[in-house]
Amino acid sequence: FAVEAPIKWKADLTGYEPALVESYEWSDDGKTFTMNMRPGLKWSDGQPYTSADWDFWWNDLNNAPDQKIYNIPAYLRNADGTPIEVTTPDEYTVVWTSKDRPLNIDPYFMAQGFWEFARWIMKPAHYLKQFHPDYTEGMAWEDMEAADKWWQTPGYPCLFAWCLTELSEDGQIYTFGRNPYYW
Questions:
Q1: For every residue of the chain, which 3-state class applies, written as one string?
Q2: So what's the pLDDT on residue 10?
Q3: pLDDT tens per residue, range 114-131
Q4: Poorest-pLDDT segment among 23-37, 42-56, 116-130
Q5: Torsion angle of alpha carbons 34, 38, 40, 45, nearest 10°?
């Protein structure tokens, strides 16, 4: 259930296809990868899923200078180890740009679902800002870390068909409910 990603494996495993994104493409030199998101997609709480969520993930989490929780994966780095550039030119476009190497294989890491997209990139900005020290007075990065666990936090907005709705006090029983906004 936790494999929803922008790009996914085809059902016959012969390659990849768009999922949460409507389309994607590379520049001729392979150094720029552009995703065109599906307009109208929503988080499980009904809020729109847009490039603002990607911007929050990239700028307010991964590249926040005073945090030690979020890491930029190797596939989102230039050959010299510096982060690539991730921009959101409009509400439904996300662009990855490398300064010195092609990104031809990089987007497919997201197709693995849980580890590369759901765990590290699926960040509902509207929800997480209430725990972010730059947006909410009195919050610290430890609060952000504790709250940013969709697999342990009932009510954490997700993009999956099923989202965590209840967790037993002992943490042994997980209850997932249907996402009424699943695309």
A1: CCCCCCEEECCCCCCEEECCEEEEEECCCCCEEEEEECCCCECCCCCECCHHHHHHHHHHHHCCCCCCCCCCCHHHECCCCCECEEEEEECCEEEEECCCCCCCCHHHHHHHCHHHHHCCCCCCHHHHHHHCCCCCCCCCHHHHHHHCCCCCCCCCCCCCCEEEEEECCCCCCEEEEECCCCC
A2: 85
A3: 567 777 889 999 999 999
A4: 116-130
A5: -80
